[in-house]
From TrEMBL:
The lineage of its organism: Bacteria, Bacillati, Actinomycetota, Actinomycetes, Mycobacteriales. It comes from Tsukamurella conjunctivitidis. It comes from the Bacteria. InterPro entries: PhoX. This is PhoX family phosphatase. PANTHER family: DUF839 DOMAIN-CONTAINING PROTEIN, SLR8030 PROTEIN. Residues 649-674 are annotated as: Disordered. Pfam families: PhoX (PF05787).
């Protein structure tokens, strides 16, 4: 029996749900240093230290036992898979529950090197890393990669994905997809960690960013095939962007860009969304680990911000500074301040300049998603995906201009330039670690204003002692000063289009309630939280008050500290480490996971959850991704489901010379991150 994750046990000590390799290349091992939020914000809960430590001991004992078990899984055979029903010991949902949109037989947890789907469903890869995107792009050649070729091909480690219908072409879409990060050891044979060649670095830079590619469906199937069409585009770490808003020109000026408004590239693009006016928005998340050279800021004005954002503290696994000075903090200290924004791309115009919006602040941004109120107000929700960071919303002062022409698009791409940025402060009842309150976790809370950006480009700070440009650039510091609530890694946040309620995945936080760290509170109720929770917000979208509850407190359904919306926990699929969320046409929530292997002996997957009625909280697993992979970017339509399979086979003993996965092509092939479509052989999804 292989033990591909053995290093996970010795190096991670419960700090991360990922392999050491993923942690190194994705986020610079930030879990293994002191977290960035050292503010003394008061956390509610008012629990005694004795209660915290008593709970921590119990949590640590259970978590350790699970982690050892998870490391013992076999690497399954490659290829596609269909599953029989989940065994009762794995929390199989009741076959008698009728849940529109979720009427499929939940799959069993597994460790297969395959995408596993329910019986009666089929699947096909839509596009892989290296597949041609731009007309004239060469075919992928793993052993002879060049930056010129990669800049025309599908990028590495796909994340957020969505489909935008092409007008006048039935079942034809623009598929937009983030390429979050690269793993040199998986991309190149003979790769020397810490000493990549210039060609390897340039290929990796071209493999980052965003892809726009036309895809076409097939009659009677959910399959999608790429078309080398006129809209296709690759945006990379070198593509010019326009930086707008209060941060533009403020500690963003460089030798190459004295204006501080023309930025090259986007990196670490995690989740995102589609705006009502047809653009894509994407969050720049773990960008700090692409910069190194010094952790000492050369200017006094950078000291507080650098410290709060962990600049120079993460491990630089990419070493781009060897070949581009802008990634060397000792030579170009302002370059890093040009990342961490919500970016906006017009996929309908491949020649358009993408935008970075600083009016929404700067952070390690998971993504952003928009809700339009009945009166036409545009509200954007987003999270800062690090331990003990905050949840934000932005209420625009502009309304959507109707129409599909260039003038309407230009006007609507100004919507995120004007408005007020808020941060969330939660309130709720006292909680005890490991004990679910009667009626679940809930509370009423407040949005605190941080920054208002006006139509003329000027901005007003609402934070005492911080000018507006500081709030836009050092948004975390602003949140500290107003007493925002420290959360357990707020990841994807999306509004339910049917109800307007907001759903936020809080992935995990192994430091919660430990010595010197923030203790538990109602929205973050567990010490050493390994499995995460799912937050449901009922918002006064343009106002400052909201109520909330925890829909799910994830983990083993047999454990006393888990909660599945009040549903019978013996009839649910177990879920851990929620990451991305989306909705189907029935109003069900769908959740993809990142890190299940650290909690259970199984691969990550995609789950459907009932939100309303007597079956609220029913959770069913629809698919699993291959061994070592993360489930990203779910898209759920009536006739198909898409997922982005990120870092397949990325275990600590895997390299391009000795891969531990051969998905998706099987045989002795190299693993390739890919987008997959799944559909029902007869009928719609979940019917």
């Amino acid at each position: 029996m292989r033990l591909p994750n053995l290093r996970l046990l010795t190096d991670h000590d419960g700090k991360s749900a990922r392999s050491h390799t993923t942690c190194k290349y994705k986020c610079g091992n930030q879990c293994f240093r002191e977290h960035d939020n050292q503010s003394d914000n008061e956390y509610f809960g008012d629990i005694t230290r004795r209660t915290v430590l008593r709970g921590a001991g119990v949590a640590a004992l259970g978590a350790g036992a699970v982690t050892v078990l998870a490391a013992c899984g076999d690497n399954g055979s490659s290829g596609a898979g269909a599953s029989s029903s989940a065994a009762a010991g794995n929390g199989a949902p009741s076959a008698n529950v009728n849940a529109p949109g979720l009427n499929f037989t939940a799959i069993a947890p597994n460790k297969a090197d395959a995408v596993t789907v329910p019986e009666g469903y089929e699947q096909a890869v839509v596009i892989r890393w290296g597949d041609p995107v731009v007309p004239g792009a060469p075919q992928f050649d793993f052993d002879n990669q060049t930056p010129e070729a990669q800049a025309q091909q599908f990028g590495f480690n796909n994340d957020f994905t969505d489909l935008i219908a092409v007008e006048g072409k039935p079942d034809t879409f623009l598929m937009v997809c983030n390429q979050e990060y690269t793993t040199g050891t998986a991309m190149f044979k003979g790769y020397k960690e810490g000493d990549p060649t210039e060609n390897q670095v340039r290929v990796e830079m071209a493999a980052h960013g965003i892809t726009v590619v036309e895809v076409k469906g097939e009659p009677g199937s959910g399959k999608l095939t790429p078309v080398l069409g006129e809209y296709n585009r690759r945006i990379t770490a070198s593509t010019p962007f326009e930086l707008r808003g209060p941060a533009a020109g403020f500690f963003t000026r460089t030798a190459a860009d004295p204006s501080g408004t023309r930025v090259l590239g986007t990196i670490a693009n995690c989740s995102g969304g589609i705006t009502p006016w047809g653009t894509m928005i994407s969050g720049e998340e773990n960008y700090t680990n692409y910069f190194s050279g010094t952790d000492t800021p050369p200017l006094d004005g950078l000291k507080e911000g650098w410290k709060r954002y962990g600049v120079g503290k993460d491990e630089d696994a990419h070493h781009w500074m060897k070949y581009e000075d802008r990634f060397d903090l000792s030579k170009e200290p302002n370059e890093i301040n040009r990342f961490g924004y919500l970016v906006e791309v017009n996929p309908h115009d491949p020649k358009s300049t993408p935008i970075k919006h600083s009016a929404l602040g700067r952070m390690k941004r998971e993504g952003g998603n928009i809700y339009v109120t009945p009166t036409g107000d545009v509200v954007t929700y987003c999270g800062d995906d690090s331990k003990f960071e905050y949840i934000y919303k932005f209420v625009s002062s502009r309304k959507i201009q109707p129409g599909k022409g260039a003038a309407a698009m230009e006007a609507n791409m100004r919507i995120l330039d004007e408005g007020t940025l808020y941060v969330a402060k939660f309130e709720g009842q006292k909680v005890e670690n490991g004990k679910v309150p009667e009626g679940g976790y809930k509370g009423t809370s407040t949005w605190i204003p941080l920054l208002t950006t006006k139509a003329d480009g000027s901005a007003e700070s609402h934070v005492e002692g911080m000018p507006a440009e500081n709030v836009a650039l050092w948004t975390r510091v602003a949140g500290d000063k107003v007493g925002a609530t420290k959360m357990d890694r707020p990841e994807d946040i999306e509004p339910n289009p049917k109800t307007g309620k907001i759903y936020c995945a809080l992935t995990n936080n192994s430091d919660r309630g430990t010595e010197g760290k923030a203790g538990i509170d109602t929205p973050n109720p567990r010490v050493k939280n390994k499995s995460g929770q799912l937050l449901e917000i009922t918002d006064n979208h343009t106002g400052t008050d909201f109520s909330w509850d925890l829909l799910l407190v994830c983990g083993d359904p047999a454990a006393a500290d888990t909660y599945y919306g009040g549903f019978d926990k013996t009839k649910v699929s177990r879920i851990s480490c929620p990451d991305n969320v989306t909705f189907d046409s029935h109003g069900n929530l769908w959740i993809s996971t990142d890190g299940t292997n650290a909690t259970f002996d199984s691969n990550d997957g995609l789950f459907g959850v009932v939100l309303e009625g007597k079956d609220r909280g029913l959770t069913k697993q629809f698919l699993t991704v291959p061994f070592g992979a993360e489930t990203c970017g779910p898209v759920v339509r009536d006739n198909r489901v898409l997922v982005a399979v990120q870092h397949p086979g990325e275990t600590d003993d895997a390299t391009a010379d000795k891969p531990t996965s051969h998905w998706p092509d099987g045989g002795s092939s190299q693993p390739r991150p890919s987008v997959v479509a799944v559909w029902k052989k007869s009928g719609n999804i979940g019917t």
